[in-house]
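Chapter summary example.
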Amino acid sequence: MDVNSNQQSDVLLAFDKEKKTIGVVKGIDEKGELQTVPPKQEYNNDFLKVDKNANLFENFFKNFTSQLKDPTRFNFFKVETGQAEQTAKVMEENVKNPTPAGDEILGKLYVEVKEPEKQSQQQSESTKYFIDPNKINWDELKNLSITKEDLEKSKALEPMLRGYKSPSTFPIEANLGTVVMKTDARLSFRPDKDGNVVLAIHGIRKQPELNRPYFGHQFSDEDKKNLKETGNMGRVVDVKNYITGENVPSFISVDRQTNELVSMKASSIKLPDEIKGVKLDDKQKAELREGKAVYLENMISAKEQPFSAMVQVNAEKRSLEFIFLKEERQIQRQSQEQTVRIPKSLAGVELSEKQQTDLKADKTIYVKGMKDGKGEEYNAYVKVNHEKGKLDFYQFNPDKAKEKAKEVTPAEEHKTQVAVNSDGKTSEATKQTNEPLKSEQVKPTENQQKKQEEKKEQKQEEPKKSRGRKM
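The structure predicted for these 471 residues follows.
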C-alpha cells in the first residue's frame, strides 16, 4: 500500500438508495453503471482515488456524475482512504437508527449531486458521453460511406461515444481523386488537441506488427508467442507516451478482428472480488495485475453450467477475458451446442445400433433406401450438425471429400427425383406433370409425356372466358 498516495487522495462512498447498500466507488462501466467494492481495507487497490484539492475534486465529480446512467439513485460521501471502512459502519448504523449526531457526521462528508440546469437536449447529450456528439462532423463522415444511421442501426454509436471501438467492422470507401480506398475497419472517435472529434479507422491487418518497436517496447520471442497464441502479451511493460515523454506501465493485446496492437494503462484495470461464482484470492489478483493468466475452475456460466478457463487482462477489451485451453474449448463447445436427438429411423429406414452410435460420435453414416415426400427412394450421407441442432444430408462423404461437400438432401442420382417429389421444384421437363418421379428418374416417361401433351392441347381448346368491356 502506498501510504503517501493515500494521504493525498480521498475515496467516494456510495449509498444505493434502491438496494440500501454501501460500497466504495470503483469506477463506471461502458454502460454508465456504477461499480463498487466492499468498504474494507483489503480492497484498497480497487478504490477509485480522487484528489483532495477542492477545485480538482469539483471538476472530477462533475464529470464523474455526468457519465453515470442514474446519478440521483446514489448518495455520495467523500472520505479519506483510511477512513472508508469506519465511515461505512457509521452510515450503516445511521440508516438503521438515524440520530442527529450521525446525520451531522455524514452531512459534513456528503457530496451533493447537482441537478442539471434546464438546457436543451443537445446540450445534455454533450455532457453524457466521453465524446461530445455535437462535435462530430457527420457530413465529412459521409465521404467515407459512414452515416449516423448506420452506426445506430448496428448498435455501434453508443460504445463509440463512450470512447470504445465499434463492436464490429464497417466497409470504408473513400475517393481521393486519383486514389480510391476500400477496406473493412473498426471505428472509434477520438478528441484531437484542439478539442475536435476525429474518426479513427482501425483497418484489418494480415498479422500483428511484432517485429518493430511498439511505442518504445521491443517484443521478445516470448512476447510474440503469447500474443500469437492468446492475443495477450502476459506481462506489464513500459509504453512511451510521445506527447508527454513519460513511460507508462501497460498491458498489450491484439485486436482479434483487425490484428492491431492495443495498449492499456496497468493502473486502469479494476478487478472484481469474484468471477462467475469463484472468489479471487490476493495471489490471483496480484498475478492478474501483472498481466499473467490465472486458471479458475468450476465457474458457473449464464446457463448455470460449470466450466473452467484461464482468465487474463485484455487491453483491447479493457477488461478480463476467458481463454479456453484445448480441453476446455472442447467442453465449452459441447456445452453450447444444441442437443441433437439421434433417431432410431430416418426417412423410413431403420438405423442400426452402429449407425446410431456413429452419429452420436460425430461420425458420418451412409443410408440407403430413404423415402422422399412422395414415397420414392434415395440415398445420402448423414452427419450431425451441432451448431444448427439437426442432421445434415450430403451428396458426398463430408469427411473424405477434398473440398467441403455441398449440402444437398439426396445423392446425385436422386437429386431431381427428391426436388420434384418432396420440395415441389420443377424443371422444364417436369413442370407439366403431377405424377411423382420414380427412383433415379430425371424426366417424365413417354406415357407421362403423352398425358402432358393431351392436357396442354385440351387447355388450349377451351374457350377463354370473357371478362367484359372495361368502361
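To summarize the output: The radius of gyration is 33 Å.
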